[in-house]
Design goal:
412 residues, alpha/beta, Urease, subunit C, domain 1, TIM Barrel, 2 domains, eight-stranded parallel beta sheet, 15 helices, 35% helix, globular, binds N-(iminomethyl)-L-glutamic acid, binds fe (iii) ion
Length: 412
Protein backbone atom coordinates (compact mmCIF):
# COMPACT_ATOMS: atom_id res chain seq x y z
CA UNK A 1 0.00 0.00 0.00
CA UNK A 2 1.52 3.31 -1.10
CA UNK A 3 2.02 5.87 1.66
CA UNK A 4 2.93 9.52 1.34
CA UNK A 5 3.90 11.90 4.12
CA UNK A 6 3.28 15.64 3.86
CA UNK A 7 5.45 17.28 6.49
CA UNK A 8 6.09 20.78 7.84
CA UNK A 9 2.57 22.07 7.25
CA UNK A 10 2.13 25.45 8.91
CA UNK A 11 -1.61 24.87 9.26
CA UNK A 12 -4.21 22.39 8.09
CA UNK A 13 -7.54 24.15 7.44
CA UNK A 14 -10.99 22.67 6.85
CA UNK A 15 -10.76 19.64 9.17
CA UNK A 16 -14.12 17.93 9.64
CA UNK A 17 -14.24 15.12 12.18
CA UNK A 18 -17.95 14.45 12.53
CA UNK A 19 -18.66 13.39 8.97
CA UNK A 20 -21.06 16.26 8.29
CA UNK A 21 -22.16 16.21 4.65
CA UNK A 22 -22.91 19.95 4.55
CA UNK A 23 -22.82 22.92 6.87
CA UNK A 24 -25.91 25.00 7.62
CA UNK A 25 -26.38 28.45 9.16
CA UNK A 26 -24.10 28.99 12.17
CA UNK A 27 -22.15 25.78 11.44
CA UNK A 28 -20.73 27.61 8.44
CA UNK A 29 -18.70 29.85 10.78
CA UNK A 30 -16.68 26.83 11.91
CA UNK A 31 -13.48 25.53 10.38
CA UNK A 32 -11.19 23.40 12.50
CA UNK A 33 -7.47 23.98 12.04
CA UNK A 34 -4.26 22.33 13.25
CA UNK A 35 -0.91 24.14 13.39
CA UNK A 36 2.56 22.68 12.72
CA UNK A 37 1.18 19.50 11.33
CA UNK A 38 1.81 16.45 9.16
CA UNK A 39 -0.63 14.51 7.01
CA UNK A 40 -0.36 10.91 5.80
CA UNK A 41 -1.91 9.57 2.59
CA UNK A 42 -2.48 5.85 2.07
CA UNK A 43 -3.86 4.46 -1.19
CA UNK A 44 -5.17 7.86 -2.28
CA UNK A 45 -7.01 8.56 0.96
CA UNK A 46 -6.28 10.64 4.03
CA UNK A 47 -4.95 8.12 6.55
CA UNK A 48 -4.00 10.42 9.42
CA UNK A 49 -2.91 13.90 10.41
CA UNK A 50 -1.43 15.32 13.58
CA UNK A 51 1.23 17.53 15.13
CA UNK A 52 4.72 17.44 13.60
CA UNK A 53 6.18 16.84 17.06
CA UNK A 54 4.07 13.67 17.31
CA UNK A 55 4.96 12.31 13.87
CA UNK A 56 5.21 8.51 14.26
CA UNK A 57 8.56 6.82 13.58
CA UNK A 58 7.74 5.16 10.29
CA UNK A 59 9.05 5.08 6.76
CA UNK A 60 6.91 6.30 3.91
CA UNK A 61 7.10 5.52 0.21
CA UNK A 62 7.14 9.25 -0.58
CA UNK A 63 7.62 12.46 1.33
CA UNK A 64 6.68 16.00 0.43
CA UNK A 65 7.91 18.98 2.40
CA UNK A 66 5.19 21.65 2.58
CA UNK A 67 7.88 24.12 3.74
CA UNK A 68 5.49 26.08 5.87
CA UNK A 69 2.64 26.16 3.35
CA UNK A 70 -0.93 25.55 4.46
CA UNK A 71 -3.16 22.62 3.50
CA UNK A 72 -6.75 23.29 2.40
CA UNK A 73 -9.34 20.85 1.03
CA UNK A 74 -9.44 21.20 -2.76
CA UNK A 75 -12.29 23.36 -4.02
CA UNK A 76 -15.34 21.60 -5.43
CA UNK A 77 -16.91 23.55 -8.28
CA UNK A 78 -20.49 22.31 -8.44
CA UNK A 79 -21.72 24.42 -11.39
CA UNK A 80 -19.88 24.86 -14.68
CA UNK A 81 -20.46 24.82 -18.43
CA UNK A 82 -16.84 23.92 -19.18
CA UNK A 83 -17.39 22.22 -22.56
CA UNK A 84 -17.93 24.86 -25.24
CA UNK A 85 -16.43 25.80 -28.57
CA UNK A 86 -16.01 29.58 -28.65
CA UNK A 87 -15.41 32.52 -26.33
CA UNK A 88 -17.91 35.41 -26.56
CA UNK A 89 -15.95 38.58 -25.97
CA UNK A 90 -17.86 40.44 -28.70
CA UNK A 91 -21.03 40.14 -26.63
CA UNK A 92 -19.03 41.32 -23.65
CA UNK A 93 -18.33 44.53 -25.57
CA UNK A 94 -22.02 44.79 -26.57
CA UNK A 95 -22.89 44.62 -22.88
CA UNK A 96 -20.42 47.39 -22.05
CA UNK A 97 -22.14 49.47 -24.75
CA UNK A 98 -25.47 48.96 -23.00
CA UNK A 99 -27.21 45.80 -24.20
CA UNK A 100 -28.55 43.50 -21.50
CA UNK A 101 -27.96 39.74 -21.34
CA UNK A 102 -31.63 39.15 -22.15
CA UNK A 103 -31.53 41.53 -25.15
CA UNK A 104 -28.51 39.72 -26.58
CA UNK A 105 -30.28 36.38 -26.09
CA UNK A 106 -33.46 37.65 -27.79
CA UNK A 107 -31.64 38.55 -30.98
CA UNK A 108 -30.05 35.09 -31.21
CA UNK A 109 -26.79 35.73 -29.39
CA UNK A 110 -25.85 34.27 -26.04
CA UNK A 111 -26.52 30.58 -25.61
CA UNK A 112 -27.62 30.25 -29.27
CA UNK A 113 -24.34 31.79 -30.40
CA UNK A 114 -22.49 29.07 -28.44
CA UNK A 115 -24.84 26.39 -29.81
CA UNK A 116 -23.99 27.35 -33.41
CA UNK A 117 -20.25 27.04 -32.74
CA UNK A 118 -20.74 23.77 -30.84
CA UNK A 119 -22.63 22.25 -33.76
CA UNK A 120 -19.69 23.06 -36.05
CA UNK A 121 -17.03 21.63 -33.72
CA UNK A 122 -16.03 17.97 -33.64
CA UNK A 123 -16.10 15.87 -30.49
CA UNK A 124 -12.28 15.75 -30.52
CA UNK A 125 -11.98 19.52 -30.83
CA UNK A 126 -14.37 20.05 -27.93
CA UNK A 127 -12.50 17.45 -25.88
CA UNK A 128 -9.09 19.06 -26.47
CA UNK A 129 -10.39 22.51 -25.53
CA UNK A 130 -12.03 21.15 -22.40
CA UNK A 131 -8.87 19.27 -21.36
CA UNK A 132 -6.83 22.48 -21.61
CA UNK A 133 -9.37 24.25 -19.42
CA UNK A 134 -9.31 21.43 -16.88
CA UNK A 135 -5.53 21.83 -16.60
CA UNK A 136 -6.14 25.43 -15.57
CA UNK A 137 -8.93 24.43 -13.21
CA UNK A 138 -6.81 21.99 -11.22
CA UNK A 139 -3.75 24.24 -11.09
CA UNK A 140 -5.85 26.77 -9.16
CA UNK A 141 -6.82 24.23 -6.49
CA UNK A 142 -10.08 22.70 -7.72
CA UNK A 143 -10.36 18.93 -7.37
CA UNK A 144 -13.96 18.19 -8.35
CA UNK A 145 -16.17 19.77 -10.96
CA UNK A 146 -19.69 19.44 -12.30
CA UNK A 147 -20.01 20.02 -16.05
CA UNK A 148 -23.25 20.69 -17.92
CA UNK A 149 -24.23 20.16 -21.51
CA UNK A 150 -26.59 22.82 -22.86
CA UNK A 151 -24.70 24.35 -25.76
CA UNK A 152 -26.07 21.68 -28.09
CA UNK A 153 -29.85 22.22 -28.16
CA UNK A 154 -30.22 19.45 -30.74
CA UNK A 155 -30.21 15.78 -29.83
CA UNK A 156 -27.01 15.17 -31.76
CA UNK A 157 -25.11 18.10 -30.28
CA UNK A 158 -26.28 17.49 -26.72
CA UNK A 159 -25.09 13.88 -26.98
CA UNK A 160 -21.79 15.09 -28.40
CA UNK A 161 -21.24 17.39 -25.42
CA UNK A 162 -22.15 14.68 -22.92
CA UNK A 163 -19.81 12.20 -24.60
CA UNK A 164 -17.02 14.75 -24.24
CA UNK A 165 -17.82 15.00 -20.53
CA UNK A 166 -17.73 11.20 -20.28
CA UNK A 167 -14.26 11.15 -21.84
CA UNK A 168 -13.10 13.83 -19.42
CA UNK A 169 -14.43 11.71 -16.54
CA UNK A 170 -12.47 8.71 -17.80
CA UNK A 171 -9.20 10.55 -18.32
CA UNK A 172 -8.97 13.33 -15.75
CA UNK A 173 -7.74 13.08 -12.15
CA UNK A 174 -10.53 15.48 -11.22
CA UNK A 175 -13.80 14.05 -9.91
CA UNK A 176 -16.38 14.97 -12.55
CA UNK A 177 -20.19 14.89 -12.48
CA UNK A 178 -22.19 15.38 -15.68
CA UNK A 179 -25.41 17.31 -15.98
CA UNK A 180 -27.84 17.21 -18.93
CA UNK A 181 -29.04 20.77 -19.62
CA UNK A 182 -30.92 20.33 -22.89
CA UNK A 183 -33.36 22.98 -21.61
CA UNK A 184 -30.78 25.75 -21.56
CA UNK A 185 -32.08 27.92 -24.38
CA UNK A 186 -34.92 27.91 -26.87
CA UNK A 187 -33.65 27.41 -30.45
CA UNK A 188 -34.84 30.10 -32.91
CA UNK A 189 -37.02 27.66 -34.85
CA UNK A 190 -39.01 26.88 -31.67
CA UNK A 191 -39.70 30.52 -30.72
CA UNK A 192 -43.42 30.97 -30.15
CA UNK A 193 -44.02 27.26 -29.62
CA UNK A 194 -41.38 26.28 -27.09
CA UNK A 195 -43.54 23.45 -25.78
CA UNK A 196 -42.48 21.56 -28.90
CA UNK A 197 -38.84 21.94 -27.89
CA UNK A 198 -39.74 20.74 -24.39
CA UNK A 199 -41.36 17.70 -26.07
CA UNK A 200 -38.12 17.05 -27.96
CA UNK A 201 -36.12 17.21 -24.72
CA UNK A 202 -38.54 14.82 -23.01
CA UNK A 203 -39.32 12.35 -25.77
CA UNK A 204 -36.04 12.15 -27.64
CA UNK A 205 -33.11 13.63 -25.75
CA UNK A 206 -33.70 12.27 -22.24
CA UNK A 207 -34.20 8.62 -23.35
CA UNK A 208 -31.06 8.75 -25.53
CA UNK A 209 -28.97 10.40 -22.81
CA UNK A 210 -30.19 7.76 -20.35
CA UNK A 211 -29.58 4.87 -22.76
CA UNK A 212 -25.88 5.78 -22.86
CA UNK A 213 -25.76 6.56 -19.13
CA UNK A 214 -24.40 10.02 -19.91
CA UNK A 215 -25.88 12.18 -17.15
CA UNK A 216 -25.80 12.17 -13.37
CA UNK A 217 -28.11 15.18 -13.17
CA UNK A 218 -30.78 17.01 -15.13
CA UNK A 219 -31.00 20.78 -15.27
CA UNK A 220 -33.41 23.42 -16.61
CA UNK A 221 -32.89 27.17 -17.04
CA UNK A 222 -36.14 28.11 -15.27
CA UNK A 223 -36.29 31.86 -15.68
CA UNK A 224 -37.97 34.82 -17.30
CA UNK A 225 -37.48 34.61 -21.07
CA UNK A 226 -36.37 30.97 -20.90
CA UNK A 227 -38.26 27.94 -19.51
CA UNK A 228 -41.44 28.22 -17.42
CA UNK A 229 -42.25 26.42 -14.20
CA UNK A 230 -44.60 24.19 -16.17
CA UNK A 231 -41.88 23.32 -18.72
CA UNK A 232 -39.53 22.66 -15.83
CA UNK A 233 -41.93 20.31 -14.05
CA UNK A 234 -42.45 18.26 -17.20
CA UNK A 235 -38.73 17.97 -17.88
CA UNK A 236 -37.81 17.12 -14.30
CA UNK A 237 -40.47 14.42 -14.09
CA UNK A 238 -39.10 12.83 -17.25
CA UNK A 239 -35.49 13.03 -16.06
CA UNK A 240 -36.30 11.61 -12.64
CA UNK A 241 -37.96 8.61 -14.31
CA UNK A 242 -34.60 7.86 -15.90
CA UNK A 243 -32.68 8.27 -12.63
CA UNK A 244 -31.34 11.80 -13.13
CA UNK A 245 -31.58 14.02 -10.05
CA UNK A 246 -32.48 17.67 -10.68
CA UNK A 247 -30.20 20.68 -10.34
CA UNK A 248 -31.85 23.93 -11.40
CA UNK A 249 -30.86 27.31 -12.84
CA UNK A 250 -33.33 29.55 -11.03
CA UNK A 251 -34.05 33.20 -10.31
CA UNK A 252 -31.23 34.82 -12.24
CA UNK A 253 -33.43 37.28 -14.16
CA UNK A 254 -36.56 37.24 -12.03
CA UNK A 255 -38.34 35.48 -9.17
CA UNK A 256 -39.25 32.58 -11.43
CA UNK A 257 -40.72 29.90 -9.18
CA UNK A 258 -37.58 27.89 -9.97
CA UNK A 259 -36.52 27.57 -6.34
CA UNK A 260 -39.85 26.11 -5.26
CA UNK A 261 -40.01 23.75 -8.22
CA UNK A 262 -36.49 22.54 -7.43
CA UNK A 263 -37.36 21.89 -3.80
CA UNK A 264 -40.59 20.14 -4.83
CA UNK A 265 -38.70 17.71 -7.06
CA UNK A 266 -35.88 17.06 -4.57
CA UNK A 267 -33.21 18.97 -6.50
CA UNK A 268 -29.74 18.52 -5.06
CA UNK A 269 -29.19 22.24 -5.68
CA UNK A 270 -30.88 25.36 -6.99
CA UNK A 271 -28.39 27.76 -8.49
CA UNK A 272 -27.97 31.51 -9.27
CA UNK A 273 -30.58 33.00 -6.88
CA UNK A 274 -29.90 36.65 -7.63
CA UNK A 275 -33.63 37.28 -7.12
CA UNK A 276 -34.78 35.84 -3.80
CA UNK A 277 -37.86 36.75 -1.78
CA UNK A 278 -38.77 35.58 1.70
CA UNK A 279 -40.93 32.80 0.23
CA UNK A 280 -37.91 31.39 -1.62
CA UNK A 281 -35.81 31.38 1.56
CA UNK A 282 -38.66 29.80 3.48
CA UNK A 283 -39.09 27.04 0.90
CA UNK A 284 -35.44 26.00 1.28
CA UNK A 285 -35.62 25.57 5.06
CA UNK A 286 -35.58 21.89 6.06
CA UNK A 287 -35.03 20.83 2.45
CA UNK A 288 -32.35 18.60 0.96
CA UNK A 289 -31.65 21.26 -1.67
CA UNK A 290 -28.43 23.29 -1.56
CA UNK A 291 -28.88 26.95 -2.52
CA UNK A 292 -25.89 27.76 -4.71
CA UNK A 293 -24.75 31.28 -5.51
CA UNK A 294 -22.58 32.08 -8.52
CA UNK A 295 -20.58 35.22 -7.68
CA UNK A 296 -18.70 35.32 -11.00
CA UNK A 297 -21.91 35.59 -12.99
CA UNK A 298 -23.35 38.41 -10.87
CA UNK A 299 -19.99 40.20 -11.12
CA UNK A 300 -19.68 39.78 -14.89
CA UNK A 301 -23.29 40.78 -15.64
CA UNK A 302 -23.52 43.42 -12.91
CA UNK A 303 -26.54 41.66 -11.43
CA UNK A 304 -27.98 42.31 -8.00
CA UNK A 305 -26.30 40.15 -5.37
CA UNK A 306 -28.01 37.11 -3.96
CA UNK A 307 -28.84 37.66 -0.25
CA UNK A 308 -26.26 35.15 1.01
CA UNK A 309 -25.96 36.76 4.44
CA UNK A 310 -29.72 36.68 4.97
CA UNK A 311 -29.87 33.05 3.87
CA UNK A 312 -27.11 31.91 6.24
CA UNK A 313 -28.61 33.96 9.08
CA UNK A 314 -31.93 32.19 8.40
CA UNK A 315 -30.14 28.89 9.04
CA UNK A 316 -29.71 27.77 5.42
CA UNK A 317 -26.65 26.17 3.89
CA UNK A 318 -25.08 28.20 1.12
CA UNK A 319 -22.69 26.97 -1.57
CA UNK A 320 -20.74 29.10 -4.04
CA UNK A 321 -19.51 27.88 -7.42
CA UNK A 322 -17.91 29.46 -10.50
CA UNK A 323 -20.62 28.99 -13.18
CA UNK A 324 -17.68 28.92 -15.58
CA UNK A 325 -19.07 29.56 -19.09
CA UNK A 326 -18.30 31.82 -22.07
CA UNK A 327 -21.36 34.06 -21.69
CA UNK A 328 -21.80 35.04 -18.07
CA UNK A 329 -18.75 33.87 -16.12
CA UNK A 330 -15.59 33.31 -18.15
CA UNK A 331 -13.47 32.40 -15.11
CA UNK A 332 -13.06 29.05 -13.36
CA UNK A 333 -10.95 30.54 -10.58
CA UNK A 334 -12.44 29.33 -7.29
CA UNK A 335 -9.87 31.38 -5.34
CA UNK A 336 -11.58 34.42 -6.81
CA UNK A 337 -15.01 33.03 -5.85
CA UNK A 338 -13.68 32.69 -2.30
CA UNK A 339 -12.63 36.35 -2.31
CA UNK A 340 -15.92 37.53 -3.82
CA UNK A 341 -17.83 35.56 -1.18
CA UNK A 342 -16.17 37.68 1.51
CA UNK A 343 -15.87 41.01 -0.29
CA UNK A 344 -19.21 41.21 -2.08
CA UNK A 345 -21.48 38.92 -0.01
CA UNK A 346 -20.01 39.64 3.46
CA UNK A 347 -19.31 36.02 4.31
CA UNK A 348 -16.55 35.47 6.85
CA UNK A 349 -13.48 33.58 5.54
CA UNK A 350 -14.69 30.45 7.39
CA UNK A 351 -18.15 30.68 5.81
CA UNK A 352 -16.61 31.27 2.39
CA UNK A 353 -14.35 28.23 2.76
CA UNK A 354 -17.28 26.02 3.70
CA UNK A 355 -19.36 27.48 0.85
CA UNK A 356 -16.71 26.52 -1.73
CA UNK A 357 -15.67 23.12 -0.36
CA UNK A 358 -17.99 20.96 1.77
CA UNK A 359 -21.19 22.66 0.61
CA UNK A 360 -20.31 22.56 -3.08
CA UNK A 361 -19.24 18.93 -2.59
CA UNK A 362 -22.76 18.31 -1.26
CA UNK A 363 -24.26 20.14 -4.27
CA UNK A 364 -22.58 17.62 -6.57
CA UNK A 365 -23.20 14.56 -4.43
CA UNK A 366 -19.61 13.86 -3.36
CA UNK A 367 -19.39 15.27 0.17
CA UNK A 368 -19.07 11.77 1.67
CA UNK A 369 -15.67 11.57 -0.08
CA UNK A 370 -14.53 15.15 -0.72
CA UNK A 371 -14.82 18.72 0.55
CA UNK A 372 -12.95 18.52 3.86
CA UNK A 373 -9.81 17.18 5.52
CA UNK A 374 -11.24 14.04 7.08
CA UNK A 375 -9.61 10.67 7.77
CA UNK A 376 -10.96 8.23 5.19
CA UNK A 377 -11.87 10.86 2.60
CA UNK A 378 -9.95 11.06 -0.64
CA UNK A 379 -6.68 12.97 -0.44
CA UNK A 380 -7.76 15.96 -2.52
CA UNK A 381 -6.13 19.11 -1.22
CA UNK A 382 -3.84 21.94 -2.18
CA UNK A 383 -0.80 23.27 -0.41
CA UNK A 384 -0.28 27.01 -0.47
CA UNK A 385 2.82 29.07 -0.87
CA UNK A 386 3.86 30.43 2.53
CA UNK A 387 0.95 32.70 3.57
CA UNK A 388 0.47 34.44 6.91
CA UNK A 389 -2.97 33.03 7.80
CA UNK A 390 -5.98 31.30 6.25
CA UNK A 391 -7.81 34.62 6.10
CA UNK A 392 -5.15 35.66 3.59
CA UNK A 393 -6.71 33.26 1.05
CA UNK A 394 -9.81 35.42 0.37
CA UNK A 395 -8.06 38.66 1.32
CA UNK A 396 -5.39 38.56 -1.37
CA UNK A 397 -7.76 38.48 -4.33
CA UNK A 398 -6.36 37.92 -7.79
CA UNK A 399 -3.16 36.22 -6.61
CA UNK A 400 -2.65 32.49 -7.13
CA UNK A 401 -1.74 31.27 -3.65
CA UNK A 402 -1.62 27.57 -4.59
CA UNK A 403 1.85 26.00 -4.66
CA UNK A 404 0.87 22.41 -5.44
CA UNK A 405 -2.21 20.21 -5.69
CA UNK A 406 -2.77 16.58 -4.61
CA UNK A 407 -5.70 14.71 -6.15
CA UNK A 408 -6.48 11.14 -5.07
CA UNK A 409 -3.19 11.22 -3.19
CA UNK A 410 -1.10 12.01 -6.28
CA UNK A 411 0.78 15.24 -6.68
CA UNK A 412 -0.05 16.94 -9.97
O1 LIG B 1 -25.45 29.82 -15.78
N1 LIG B 1 -28.01 31.23 -16.99
C1 LIG B 1 -27.91 30.34 -17.81
N2 LIG B 1 -26.83 29.73 -18.27
C2 LIG B 1 -25.50 30.17 -18.07
C3 LIG B 1 -25.08 31.15 -19.08
C4 LIG B 1 -24.99 30.58 -20.40
C5 LIG B 1 -24.46 31.49 -21.46
O2 LIG B 1 -24.76 32.69 -21.52
O3 LIG B 1 -23.72 30.95 -22.27
C6 LIG B 1 -25.33 30.65 -16.65
O4 LIG B 1 -25.09 31.83 -16.39
FE1 LIG C 1 -24.95 28.12 -15.25
Amino acid sequence: MKTTLIKNIKQIVGIEREGKLRKCGKEMTETETLNDAYLVIEEGKIKAFGLMEELPEQTFDEEYDAKGGQVFPAFCDSHTHLVYANSREHEFVDKIRGLSYEEIAKRGGGILNSAKATAAASEDELYDLAQQRLDGVKSLGTGAIEIKSGYGLTTESELKLLRVIRRLKENSPLTIKSNFLGAHGIPMEYRGHQEDYVDLVINEMIPKVAAEGLADYIDVFCDQGFFTVEDTERILEAGIKYGMRPKIHANEMAVSGGVQVGVKYGAISVDHLEQMGDAEIESLKCSETMPTILPGCAFFLNLPLSPARKMIDAGLSVAMASDYNPGTAPSFNMQLVLSMACIRYRLTPEEALNATTINTAYAMGVSDQLGSITVGKRANFYITKPIPSYEYMPYSFGENKVETVFLNGNRL
